[in-house]
Structure formats: structure tokens, C-alpha cells
Design brief:
Length: 107
């Protein structure tokens, strides 16, 4: 379920000991290619895909909502029947109510 909480796009800060351990574990740079470690970012691991997924933005709130969220009670058997039909059961329930409204007066 989407959330309205925006994830931080920055990596967490690391202790000087963690940075020193990462520098010590890194292979020594070749003389031709010096590495500037001042702007290095330490990621939690898992590869590029995991890092991109962690930094990916979440979807924000709907600016022009077309539906209204309400609390409503249905009989258990009716609700179970729609839920048993799989994903999209709320859309199908909305369509069934819309079809009923087309042939009946709402009052």
C-alpha cells in the first residue's frame, strides 16, 4: 500500500571507524587512477538494484481524487464473495453498485 511518507534520498552517516574500515578493505588504487574518497558514499549493500530501490521516491498524495474513502459495513458473506473473486474486488463491487443505481432510485 503506498505511503505518504517520503523516503530520505541521503545515506545514513557512518562513524569514522566504519569509514576507516571501508578504506582499509578497499584495494589500493593504481598509480594512474587515484581515487578521491572525500565524496564517497557507503551504501547498505545488496548491489545497485537494492540501492536504487532504497532511494526510489514513493508516490505522493493524489492531487485530484475521483473517489472518496468511507467506512461502510457489509454482510460477511457478501464481502467474502467479492474478496474471493481476487484482486480488483473493490472495483467490481463499485461497478455492481453503479449498475444497481442505474436501474433503481437511490432514495
Amino acid at each position: 500500500m503506498p505511503t505518504n511518507v517520503k523516503r530520505s534520498a541521503t545515506s545514513p552517516t557512518f562513524s569514522p571507524e566504519a569509514v576507516a574500515a571501508a578504506l582499509a578493505a578497499a584495494p589500493p588504487p593504481q598509480e594512474a587512477e587515484k581515487v578521491d574518497w572525500d565524496r564517497a558514499v557507503v551504501t547498505p549493500g545488496g548491489g545497485v538494484d537494492a540501492t536504487i530501490a532504497a532511494l526510489r521516491r514513493t508516490r505522493g498524495p493524489n492531487k485530484h481524487p475521483t473517489k472518496v474513502q468511507v467506512a461502510i459495513r457489509f454482510d460477511r458473506d457478501v464481502l467474502e464473495a467479492f474478496r474471493a473473486s481476487g484482486r480488483g474486488w473493490q472495483t467490481r463491487m463499485n461497478a455492481a453498485l453503479r449498475e444497481w443505481l442505474s436501474t433503481h432510485s437511490p432514495t
